[in-house]
Model the fold of this input.
Amino acid sequence: MSSPSASTGTGLEVISPGGARRFVPIMESPFFIGRGGDTKRHLQLADPRVSRQCASITSEGGKYYVEDCGQRNGIFVNGERVTRRALGDGDVITFGLPDFYELIFHAFIPGDSTTIPELLSRIEHISTGEGTGGGLHKLNLLLEATTLLHSLLPLDAVVESMLDHAITITGADRGLLLATDSTGSLRVRVARSRGGTRLAPGEVAPSQTALRQALERQASVITEDLAQAGHNLQAAESIMAQRLRAVVVIPLYATPHNASADSGTQAQRGDFLGIVYLDSRRPFAFSKLDRRILDALSLEAASILHNAHLAERERGRLLLEQEIGFARDIQQALLPRGFRDFPHLTASGINLPCHTVGGDYFDVFPVSEERTAFLIADVSGKGLGAAFLTTMLQGALTGMTIGVDPERLFNRLNQFLYEHADVGHYATMFFGLVDREGQLDFINAGHPSPLLLRRGEISEPFTEGTFPVGIMPGADYAAARVKLEPGDTLILFSDGVSEALDPEEQEFGLPRFREALAGQSEAPLAELQETVLESVRNFTRGAAQADDITLLLVRYRGVGS
Done:
């Protein structure tokens, strides 16, 4: 049986069904867990529902492993049933039983002898100069503070509770938490005095000299008696003015995710989180035990503050996602949901945004009893900005149903967008107006030319066009005309179709597009649309796309068909 060093500090925080906590160091390997007598020197759980030896923890190659030794209901690590698994700091071991013990594994980090489990496991060896009852009372306060730090209270409430317990434990006069503002300057975020009284942050003046020393050293500054401290601290104006005799300054740093025991002799530090500051007018206010408890509490507080900052960022991200979701729902609701058959044409369309919201738009709508409009647009950029501009374009274009001339409308849209160039977006568009006789008037504002499928042949007769809307001041948008024949199908698309990429970043391209359309003159539009999409899907093979995929198919049926 091997014996890990007695000073490792590695062990189990045992939480009983009633909520009581104790720390059991792992002194031997294997370390047995169960209810039998052979676990007496290890961890004995007084409950008949577990086996005599239900689990063991072994030390191998500097790592610890938990192993199921025959527990009927299984051994679980962080909720996952395991047979054997390596343990990491903070892993929770349970036994598949309701209202039963929980074990939290704590791994010792070399160079760090002030973690809470380590402090609890060695407290009987600490010489404090105060009665045992006082030391135990402070430890109880420490455990209460730790429980509060891990609660679901708001961050400021957690910080206030932490400061109240730190003040009570040490007998300090004041406690502060300082954090950086948007300019990077340290500001008092929370201030408390003895008795749990809240202080106005602007009314307290911590020692700037002590703060500066702690930040320069990236380590705690703890003075037992300022009268015996260095000249800089003794002569500090704020210390003299407030008659301070003892000061504690503890910088808080996040633990980087890649920190490891063998990462070097100098401890790695993550992002700076803030400073815990305590002071007192009593000399020798902070005992050896106080300082160790403060170090342990600060390590725990740094972890909780870091997690709270991450949680705040996560809440912001979720709120943004929710708002983007609302924008997506609105945008998708504004897109047409299936087209009715018009007297002289039928249509089908689909939009697949590459992000939650997209910058593509299409529509088909009647302008009069004799004429029907259809359009497709692609706003530059992606995300909310493009989506907002797309919605604005939709509102302007659907206004044509009350008789706005398309050429005047395009000229006005172009001028408006150019004059508001700080929006940072422009749009390519293809707009068509077809009557019962098949006369098609169109404006192509820098958009890829639609394909015309006629009697099995594929052509591009709509290349005549001008600049995208919003990119050139004074651009003149004039309509061109072609004659459609009954059975002609127009395939309008965004460049997300022709420029779709496969995993090797090769483009789908017009030749493949034409190949997908070949022989489809008589196919129903929904079937033709799905044929194109399937061809694109087969080509891209699941590769992420950087642009929206939008298709609009319009088939002229002729008068009386």
The CA atoms of residues 350 and 413 lie 25 Å apart. The first strand starts at residue 11 and ends at 15.
